[in-house]
Amino acid sequence: MLELAVLVLLLAIAIATVRLSLNRPWDTETYWYAAVAQSQGLNPYDKQDLSLLAHRDVGMGFLYPPITLPLFKTLTLWPVLEAAEIWAIAKVALLFVLVQLWRSRFTVRTNPFLLEMAAVFGYNAAALWDIKTGNIAILEQLLLWAGLAAFLGGHRRRFAAWVVAASLFKLTPIVFLALLLIPTQTGRRDWKLALGALGVWAALVFLPALVGPAWCRAYLHSLPAERPWGTASPSALGLIDMLLAEHTKPLAAPSWRALAIWLSYAVLLLAFSAQHIKRLWKGQNPLECVSVAAILYALLAPRMMAYSYLLVVVPSLVLFSPILSRLGGTIAMTGILTSQAVLAPVLRLDYADPWLANLPFLLLLGLWVAYIVGSWRLAPIPAVRRGSVLRELKEARS
To answer: 373-383 b/e with 16+ CB inside 10 Å = b?
Structure first.
């Protein structure tokens, strides 16, 4: 209860101090109107139908697969504004559960207060972005990290099921099934399970859109009208778009110049990381595999949204803290992760500048480069052995 109180206090401080470019629960409102539209025989993927229900223009259309709509129908038990408040409170509870999962399975030796600080303020307050915009990111991360915890314990079928569930919204987390192809201390390489889970996911996402009612088929044509960019989407492609002054163009009209530069960046990053990836591919402890996979996913994702950086909070503590061992390790890394969100209002940072707007991405990239350069000098990350988590947690608390 004390840790929950501390988390709520930190969130209250973040709400009062952290400056975000989006503060209204737009995403929750979109989910609510999409669920109502489907219930009334309208098209949840048609922005005009959503605007008709809202009696105003709805800026963002519904983008998730048809299978996710039953979840959002729960929100329609309340009026839209009350539903947004209830959803925000629910996500605070989900964030607390997520932090407890991190503590028990991934960061057993990390001070709980430092972990909560990183969870709330890390990477420009990624968790706060999710709570204030009403996105699905915290729930998605809880599902994904439940799967990654199963991977650490050697429960690979359970891992595959959790990853499929986490990927029913934004699809791209399905790439974490590639971890099934890596032999670790807790499990063997399993191609059949990976392909089978991929097939189940594809059927759940795309079959309704291919053979379902007309409104289901509209999912295949749903795209956001504008490119995500700036502080809302600190990413490689977002930075490139801003530097080329092409970030205001529609997403349906891609910039081939920006895509070519992004592909070159991706190739260079993978080449730079190749030796480390090759070592992991041959078999390594699962904790390091999970951490590296999460960070490379964030660095290579062309449109990594602000709230999605919650994914790399724990991997940053796990991988990068040893680099700062002379400065206190986890304490120093927590300070680095939280400094941007805390200092931005004080320094009056101008997020119209492409480099400042994409600071979370640049910070993660810089830490990864430092990790690769210095990894040969660092001691191996200790594996989380099956059945040892409770013992390690007791030792850490004592």
So the answer is: eebeeeeebeb
By the 8 A CB rule, do 124 and 341 touch? yes
With H, G, I as helix, E, B as strand and everything else as coil, classify residue 187.
strand
Beta-carbon contacts of 253 under 8 Å, excluding residues fewer than 6 positions away, are none
What sign results for the dihedral spanned by CA atoms 209, 211, 213, 218? positive
C-alpha span between 183 and 188 (Å, rounded) = 5
Give me 191's structure tokens: 């191609």
Rounded CA separation 38/45 (Å): 9
- Identify the bridge partners of residue 250 per DSSP, sorted by sequence position: 226
Closest among 333, 278, 391, 294 to 122, alpha carbons compared: 333
For residue 246, the SS3 value is coil
Task: Let me know if 132 is exposed, middle or buried by CB neighbors in 10 A (0-12, 13-18, 19+).
Answer: buried
**Residues facing 226 on adjacent strands:** 250
**Residue 318's Cα: distance from chain center in Å?**
17
Q: Are 364 and 295 in contact (CB under 8 A)?
A: yes
> Burial, 119: exposed, middle or buried (Cβ in 10 Å; 0-12, 13-18, 19+)?
buried
**168, two tokens:** 């029913």
Give the separation between CA 53 and CA 60, rounded to whole angstroms: 14
Alpha-carbon distance of 214 to 283, in angstroms, equals 47
Q: Are 239 and 363 in contact (CB under 8 A)?
A: no
3-class DSSP state of 250: strand
Q: Report d(CA 244, CA 304) in Å as an integer.
A: 18
**Type of residue at 52:** L
Residue type, position 314, single letter: V
Q: How far is 355 from 248, CA to CA, in rounded Å?
A: 17
What are the per-10-residue average pLDDT scores of the chain (398 residues)? Answer: 90 85 82 93 90 85 92 93 94 96 89 92 92 94 96 93 96 95 82 95 93 86 70 89 77 77 94 86 82 95 91 93 80 87 73 86 93 67 50 45
Q: Look up the pTM and report it.
A: 0.89
